[in-house]
Design brief:
Number of domains of chain A: 1
Order of helices and strands of chain A: HHHHHEEHHHHHHH
Structural class of chain A: mainly alpha
Oligomer: heterotrimer
Chains: A mainly alpha (294), B mainly alpha (290), C alpha/beta (253)
Number of helices of chain A: 12
CATH class of the largest domain in chain C: Alpha Beta
Distance between the termini of chain C: 37 Å
């Protein structure tokens, strides 16, 4: 029982990192990305690669994963963000699909469809973090650091710039903000921190494959942010917890066909998204006041 | 010969993509709603047809009609019961998109539960390929697909140009207030647009069911094509969406030949990226300032 | 006022813009001089907001040129123009709704994209002081911590003005800044605008409210169906019966 809970909390913190970083661009900048799972994957594969071939040290594998994700997102964001937000959704959708194909085909780096196995546990100053409880603490610490960083960032002028863009991109533009650069920076920050989740995931499971980084995952992450409440600090964490408890919740409902739990879970959050958008777009945590039409 | 085969396959697929794309482009161009559930409309039509024709062995005309009705009802239902309430209070692009996404997810999974997640297909004598020339296999479905698409576009064109409602529709995106001149309200017209756009996918859904089979996850692919074709063709241009659908069908099949099946979907996106980057206006759309 | 001695800040020459077959801007030439308040009037649909959009770069002209301080600005991205001295407000306000009044004003002074603004603590203090000053002038001090979304209509209009005041721009393009305001509010608005003009801001304002038009304008430009029909002193333009017919004829129809 304790092992189950520790595992759940570890996975929740990893997913929470993903949700919080996605919220940073969705809720604070108004950039709807359907490709967040790709950066999750980039972090995982990079960390796995480094851990297997060079060093499993936390202070080497993780920063490298962050830097790789940052560079990749920079290359992708710079052109993609010049276009309107609506087109960006399409571009990110395309990137997600393309990314999965690349993950599946680039056998030397990602192991192709089979994935990578035998990833060593992460080391902190040569101490191997194998104990699940210790790893859970590590994940929680990472989550807290990232949440803290984003909280601080959102109180700075950069945070205000993002929110201005989210609230009215045209007005921000008309008042002197270089919207493209600000958006690019926010995407880079979001993606590189998402890579941390990927790295944690890789060294935790010891095994990763492309199934974890598909469109379904990106959509689930989006659901976590939206249901919890985009644009709030606690919303995405709340959303993560709820959505991750759903499968267990459903398995307790004996009247539901057990083989269809996955589908039922998706139907549940699909329905939640629809209902929330109609009645409470701010999500569960967000304010219930509705924004007037622009 | 292999190349010719792929061209013909490309045309068949392209014709179907063109239909789907025009349906989406019509809706998006007129209402500016990112109707992500368009893929779900396709899936519903396809599975309704499948369950009636293949499973229940109902006559194909009746099956097609019911499938069409289901698609139209779904589209209009979403407009009236999901999009309209949202538009009343806030109506931001992304709220609508998320709601649409949610609907798509619900439909996809419901169908998965009811019909299973594997591939099913509709077998008809028409799907049998005939070897026209050595190495060139063509099934009557290719011809039917192309004829269907051409017919549908001709009817659509007439409708848009010649009828009152059609003309009102064309002004919906430019100047919604003008619609009242035609005695209609923007809300009513919006429902008509959804009905029309959803109806357009029905022939494509049925023909797809017969030629390549169905599975619940296909809504993703359909959605991606609709989106890509609308952007590449130019937002607001139905002609553009049709040509773009054709282009994407062709490029997908050519990619199949040279790069293998895993890359064919990716190629669609590479085409999309190139357009977004270098010509966001698409073929015929108006350039949109950022 | 001796117009010849004033510098021409913005020169619009032979500007044309078509949408399909419709000429929304038809050979418009207009000079906006430093320190002068020019009002754009005309019936709805005359192309006034379109002209603003052309100046700011939201729309690209089909032909003609726009010179800002002598240099052509056609094709320049709007954010660069804003930093170079042209700021605008919107008819539909486009406030940063989820942010507080204070944040709305502050963020305009923080256009730099890096995480921190240059200048350190001293500049930060200056900005805070300026925010307080603007809040005072626009009578929004008591609402500083409220969300823009929660303000009354008049307060939102004033916040829109507060934002442009924060922009430090040399020239303001104001799009119907006083529409819908009750009498006491628009008198407040008029006084606010007069104060700012005294400090040297050049203003071009689209306005229907005749009291404001008369109260603030140094020059009036009359547009109809994309064409500039008149451009001159308020007395001259407003007394022209032909223009009045177009303007009031449209209003009552």
């Amino acid at each position: 029982m304790a092992a189950y809970i520790i595992n759940l909390i570890t996975l929740m913190s990893i997913n929470a990192i993903l949700a919080v970083t996605l919220n940073f661009i969705m809720g604070y900048a108004g950039i709807y990305s359907m490709a967040h799972a790709i950066f999750f994957g980039v972090g995982a594969y990079t960390a796995a690669f480094v851990a297997l071939n060079f060093s499993a040290s936390f202070f080497i594998a993780f920063p490298i994963a962050i830097i790789v994700a940052a560079i990749l997102s920079l290359i992708l964001a710079l052109p993609a963000l010049r276009v309107r937000g609506e087109y960006f959704v399409a571009a990110s959708l395309g990137l997600q699909v393309l990314g999965v194909t690349i993950f599946s085909e680039w056998k030397s780096f990602t192991g192709g469809l089979g994935g990578i196995i035998g990833i060593p546990p992460v080391e902190i100053f040569t101490y191997e973090v194998i104990n699940p409880l210790e790893f859970m603490l590590l994940s929680l610490v990472c989550l807290l650091l990232i949440v803290g960083y984003i909280a601080v960032l959102s109180k700075t002028s950069f945070g205000r710039n993002l929110k201005a863009i989210r609230d009215s991109e045209s007005a921000a533009y008309a008042l002197g903000k270089n919207v493209a650069i600000i958006k690019t920076l926010s995407v880079v920050i979001s993606s590189s921190l998402a890579a941390v989740a990927g790295a944690l995931y890789a060294v935790y499971l010891g095994f990763i494959n492309v199934e974890s980084f598909t469109l379904d995952t990106s959509v689930l992450l989006m659901a976590m942010v939206i249901i919890g409440g985009a644009g709030t600090m606690l919303g995405p964490i709340f959303g993560t917890v709820i959505l991750m408890l759903l499968p267990s919740l459903f398995s307790y409902m004996w009247f539901l066909p057990q083989t269809e739990i996955g589908s039922i879970q998706q139907i549940a959050y699909g329905a939640a998204m629809v209902l929330l958008m109609i009645f409470r777009p701010g999500g569960l945590v967000g304010s219930s006041k509705k924004q007037e039409a622009k | 010969m292999l190349f010719l085969q792929l061209v013909i396959n490309g045309l068949q697929v392209g014709a179907l993509y063109a239909l789907i794309a025009v349906g989406f482009s019509l809706i998006f161009g007129a209402t500016k709603i990112f109707h992500f559930a368009h893929g779900a409309t396709f899936t519903i039509a396809a599975y309704v047809f499948y369950s009636l024709y293949s499973v229940q062995e109902v006559h194909w005309v009746l099956s097609a009609l019911v499938a069409g009705l289901a698609a139209v009802l779904f589209g209009v239902f979403l407009d009236k019961c999901v999009y309209a309430p949202i538009q009343r209070h806030e109506g931001s692009f992304f709220t609508l998109f998320v709601a649409s996404l949610g609907c798509g997810i619900i439909v996809q999974n419901l169908i998965g539960i009811i019909f299973g997640r594997g591939f099913v297909s509709v077998t008809t004598p028409l799907s049998q390929s005939v070897e026209l020339f050595p190495g060139l296999f063509v099934s009557p479905l290719s011809g039917i697909a192309i004829i269907c698409a051409v017919l549908a576009f001709a009817v659509l064109q007439t409708f848009l140009m010649k009828t009152h409602i059609g003309m009102a529709l064309r002004s919906l995106s430019e100047n919604p207030e003008l619609i009242r001149v035609y005695g209609l309200s923007p809300r009513q017209l919006s429902s008509i647009v959804f009905a029309l756009g959803s109806l357009l996918v029905v022939p494509a859904a049925i023909l797809s069911a017969a030629s390549s089979g169905l599975n619940p996850a296909m809504s993703h692919h359909i959605m991606l094509i609709s989106l890509a074709a609308t952007i590449v063709g130019g937002v607001g241009s139905l002609r553009g969406a049709a040509y773009a659908g054709l282009l994407l069908g062709m490029s997908e099949n050519i990619a199949l030949l040279y790069l293998g099946p895993q890359w064919s979907e990716a190629v669609t996106f590479i085409v999309l990226f190139l357009f977004i980057m270098f010509r966001p206006a698409g073929f015929f759309g108006r350039a949109i300032a950022s | 006022m001796n117009n010849n001695s004033q510098d021409i800040l913005l020169r619009i020459s032979n500007l044309e813009k078509n949408f399909g077959g419709l000429k929304v801007t038809n050979n418009v030439s207009l000079d906006l001089r430093a320190g002068i308040v020019t009002t754009l009037v005309g019936p709805n649909g005359a192309g006034k907001t379109t002209l603003f959009n052309l100046i700011t770069g939201h729309l690209t002209p089909n032909s003609g040129d726009i010179l800002w301080k002598g240099k052509s600005i056609v094709g320049r991205p709007h954010w660069k123009l804003a930093r170079d001295g042209i700021a605008r407000t919107f008819q539909d306000l486009r406030l940063f709704n989820q942010m507080t009044v204070e944040e709305n004003i502050l963020t305009v002074m923080e256009p730099i994209s890096w995480v921190w603004q240059p200048g350190g603590a001293r500049k930060k203090q200056e900005r805070q002081e300026k925010v307080a000053e603007i809040l005072e002038k626009t009578k929004l001090a008591s609402k500083a911590k409220e969300r823009a979304l929660d303000l009354s209509y008049a307060e939102r209009k004033f916040l829109s003005m507060a934002r442009i005041m924060a922009s430090d721009a040399q020239m303001w393009l104001l799009d119907e800044p006083a529409s819908g305001l009750d009498r006491s509010s628009y008198e407040l608005f008029l006084n606010l605008l007069k104060d700012e003009v005294k400090k040297g801001v050049t203003v071009c304002i689209i306005e229907h409210n005749l009291d404001i038009v008369v109260g603030i304008s140094d020059r009036i430009a009359f547009l109809d169906q994309g064409k500039l029909l008149a451009d001159g002193e308020p007395d001259v333009v407003l007394k022209d019966p032909h223009l009045a017919a177009i303007y009031f004829g449209e209003q009552t129809s």
